[in-house]
Amino acid sequence: MDKNLNVQHLANVKEEGLRYITLPAFSEFPEIVAGFTTRFGGVSTGEFATLNLSFTRSDDKSNVFENYRLLSEDLGVPLNNMVLSYQTHSKNVMTVSKEHSGMGLVTDRTYTDTDGLITDETSLMLVTHYADCVPLYFYDPFKKVAGLTHSGWKGTLQDIAGETIKKMRDVYGCNPENIRAAFGPHIRNCCFEVDVDVAGEFAKIDYAKGHIFSRNDGKWMIDLENIIIESLKRQGLREDNIFRCNICTKCHKEIFFSHRGSRGKSGTAAAFIMIKE
Ligand SMILES: [Zn+2]
């Protein structure tokens, strides 16, 4: 069975009720709850319609909170069990424990500049945010450690994926050979074009070189997924433990929030992962 996330997995996404896609990569681990939200099922309007999950845009905060309440109700996970990142395109990965319960949602965060979250606690749902950037989900079924990392192009340049694996190894003793990694929906190589300055930054990374393509109009295309996979393999992940996502958020901007697809006027989706008790 194909455990990559494919367009066929969008078949169940309808324009009524709260809808998120689940990750086939973790389907054999009943203790894992993991998914990625769509635009559907929330109360926000306009460019944020409807399930905007970001408090940092100009959306009405009470609508965003109601969207989280709906997600909480649907997943059966109390808001106080969620822990939100503080994303600044950093390469920082934080170890999450019970003291962080509800932070970013029901209490203030005690941290800043945190784009990756890892935990070995059960019943704590890690939550990160996206509108085209790359969601990375991690799980070590032996050590029972989960991770969730936001890797946009800036995070990919800084190798936050590699940082996440190093931290899972150093803090929790995870063997990279046992870690399963899965990509969520993001802007793929069909749509992710950059100018020469950004392409030049990627060209400095030796393992990225085969995944940058020049076009004849002076723009460049970057394949973030393959660059991240190269990094994960260098950290010791087995290729058969890495699951791709063939769904592009810009190509499916009617289903997912897409910064590029909506020329910057976009709400924000959430990725989530939790180890059940
Ligand atoms: Zn695309």
Describe the structure.
This protein has 277 residues and is an alpha+beta fold. The chain has five helices and 14 strands. It has a six-stranded mixed β-sheet with strand order 4-5-8-7-9-13. Strand 7 and strand 8 form a beta hairpin. The longest helix is centred in the first third of the chain and has 15 residues. It is globular, with a radius of gyration of 17 Å. Bound molecules: zinc ion (ZN). Zinc ion binds next to loops.
Largest sheet: 6 strands, mixed
What is the CATH fold-level name?
Answer: CNF1/YfiH-like putative cysteine hydrolases
The total count of strands amounts to 14
Helix percentage range = 10-25%
Gross morphology is: globular
Second-tier CATH architecture: 4-Layer Sandwich
Strands side by side in the biggest sheet: 4-5-8-7-9-13
Describe the structure using short key phrases.
277 residues; alpha+beta; CNF1/YfiH-like putative cysteine hydrolases; 6-stranded mixed sheet; 5-stranded mixed sheet; 14 strands; globular; binds zinc ion
